[in-house]
Amino acid sequence: MSENIETLRPGQIRDAAAPARRGWGGRPIRQAGADFLAGAALPVAVIALWQLAGDANLIDPFFLPTPLAILEAFRDLIASGELAHHLGVSVRRAAVGFLFGGGLGLILGLIAGFNRNAEYVLDPSMQMLRMIPHLAIAPLVILWFGFGETSKIILIAKGAFFPLYINTLMGIRGVDEKLVQVSRILGFDRRKRLTRLMIPAAMPCILLGLRLSLALSWLGLVVAELLGSTNGIGFLINAAKQNGTTEIIFAGIVIFAIVGKLLDSFVRLLERRLLHWRDSYHG
After folding, report:
1. 13, 220, 241, 272 - which has most CB atoms within 10 Å?
2. What is the pLDDT averaged over residues 101-120?
3. What is the C-alpha to C-alpha distance for residues 26 and 259, in angstroms, rounded to an integer?
4. Facing residues of 28 across strands?
């Protein structure tokens, strides 16, 4: 074995020691491709069976249009420019609501996490507000702010607030006290302790809160737009319901699903980038 190593040229040694090519997620490209194919197998099989059942007239196309009919509705929406317009409005609403709600949740979570007295003041009220459902508070929000953009952004922000608040608070409180004691022994000042220990240790929980917050922002958008809107994907679904165009309803549902999956994949990629030091994110 040692003789074989000695006979290798430097370039060969470097090539042998080089890690496998890795994709955006920090994993080998071949493995990432295999995972994608495995995840796509079930949806493709369901869509194929769905189309076959529709072609065989086993399902009523009014209640369950075929995938090809939904694809044709997509094409018409893209050609008319409606899809780009309504999707742009919905994404902008969700982004603004998330920035307000998620940003406030992160800030208050950090304050309550680093200060026990602030936690005693803030947390009981936050937990009580968290238990109020969207549909219960929506009529009151509309009564106060009308059917305009403000009420929609408030509903989206409410959904985005609590995941980041709770997970940020739990992440900071979950930092091992022994690590804090070690940092004091090493002479870390308060700023260095926060930036080098507390925040990195709490980052897995904070990123989980970000993932949930983005998801609930997108779900809150559905509630906001279905309750009353003149544009957006929710409005598109509502109008299709009134006109009896079921394939457009399914097209809107698919759009919500695709954008939600893209947001979730973005946060998972962010987790792999920021948490590369964790064993669970290797390989």
Report:
1. 220
2. 91
3. 23
4. 22
Dihedral sign, Cα of residue 109, residue 111, residue 112, residue 114: positive
Which of 101-105, 124-128, 181-185, 239-243 has the largest mean confidence?
101-105
Q: Write out the two tokens for 91.
A: 């994404």
- Give the Cα separation of 125 and 101 in Å (integer): 16
Quote the CA–CA distance of 129 and 136 in Å, as a whole number. 12
Q: Where are the domains of the chain?
A: 65-281
pTM: 0.75
Quote the distance between the C-alpha of residue 106 and its chain's center.
16
Neighbour-count burial of 12, counting CB atoms closer than 10 A to its CB (0-12 exposed, 13-18 middle, 19+ buried): exposed
pLDDT at position 13 is 38
Fold category of 65-281 in CATH: MetI-like fold (1.10.3720)
Tokens linked to 201: 């240790």
